[in-house]
Amino acid sequence: MKNILIPTDFSDNSCNAIKYAISMFWDQECTFYLLNTYTPAIAGSRFMAASFEESMLTNSAAKYSQKGLDDLLARVKNDFVNEHHHFETISSFSLLVDEIIESISAYDIELVIMGTTGATGMEEVFMGSNTVRVIKSVKDCPVLAIPQNFEFQKPTEIAFATDFTRFYTKSELRPLVELAGIFDATVRIVHVQYEIKTLSELQLFNLGMLRKYLGEVEHYVHTVSELNSVSKTLEVFSREMDIHLLAMLNYQHSYMEQLVREPVVKRVAFHTQIPLLVIPELGMTSHLKESSKRENVVVPN
User: Fold this and answer.
1) Which H or E run contains 192?
2) Which ranges constitute the DSSP H helices of the chain?
3) Model confidence over 253-265: pLDDT tens digits?
4) Which helix (H) or strand (E) holds 6?
5) 37, 141, 211, 280: which has the fewest Cβ within 10 Å?
6) Count of CB atoms situated within 10 Å of the CB of 299
């Protein structure tokens, strides 16, 4: 059973992420946790007791949140009848990032899926600010960002962006390998270089280990020259290679870090046109977590 967390604000964008998630794992046993958080603004009237006003606003926001989740769940169950899928709702008076972090631990979440909000004109950015905050803050769970209005298509072509400067653990690559296995996908390892040059011994070693961990997954290595920015280069590569999903590891000095720090003017063209899987830096902590799980397995009666 896979546990998936999907934050929602009831917008078309977040509903599209739910639709994508259900389609992606249609044949998998899953429990989807639909999360809505609320933080009502306090007007602070001098003619009203602060505690009473706060209580009224909080109760109103809580009712709106729970009703929104109930209505959403009813629509989802009506539109997507699947015996493999189960749903839970979480309504929480909390900040979105804080609640996501808590929910990952409380519900043993394996993947967070959320929609990205597009913008127009000069306001156009890499992805919605909420998504960027979640990616920067979540340290122990992959995040899959779904572009606005993106319709699900089987991800048979997956790009994995890396510079080979860091050793990847097997646990960190597991989400990538699992998705490739589910969809019988080809993984295209893409290395963006400012200027093409030979890999160092360290990079060659890390590449060798990466290929070893990918095992029987069909994969190819592509080295490409940087076009103005990493984001622009990955956008062009994804379009030309008909990539359905872009994956990368988020660690210090990684491509992901470069993407969220690039000036807006450079990343305007790359506003997540395809789903983006961001894998957090896990190191050995994931191995310890899995060992703990195996030691605490409960056998049902």
Assistant:
1) strand 186-193
2) 12-24, 50-79, 96-106, 129-137, 170-182, 201-214, 230-240, 255-261, 264-267, 285-295
3) 666 666 665 543 3
4) strand 2-7
5) 211
6) 4
pLDDT, greater one: 152 or 130: 152
Domain range summary for the chain, segments of one domain joined by +: 2-106, 150-289
Question: 2 pLDDT exceeds 50?
Answer: yes
**Residue located via tokens 């977590």:** 289
What dotted CATH number matches 150-289? 3.40.50.620
Residue 157 and residue 185 in contact, taking contact as beta carbons nearer than 8 Å: yes
Classify residue 122 by its DSSP letter: G
**Residue carrying the six token digits 């896990």:** 282
Q: How confident is the model at residue 272 (pLDDT cuts 50, 70, 90)?
A: low
77-92 burial by CB neighbour count: b if 16+ within 10 A, else e? eeeeeeeebebebbbb
Query: Which residues have C-beta within 8 Å of that of residue 52, sequence separation ≥ 6?
Result: none
Q: Report the C-alpha gap between 35 and 69 in whole angstroms.
A: 8
Q: Which residues contact 179 (CB under 8 A, 6 or more apart)?
A: 155, 158, 185, 245, 247, 277
Contacts of 48 (CB under 8 A, 6+ apart): none
Structure tokens given for 153: 């298509």
Residue 87: closest CA among 100, 101, 75, 73: 73
Neighbours of 115 (CB within 10 A): 31
Which among 267, 273, 34, 258 is positioned nearest to 145, based on CA atoms?
273
Q: Select from 1.10.10.60, 3.40.50.620, 3.60.21.10, 3.40.930.10 the CATH code of 2-106.
A: 3.40.50.620
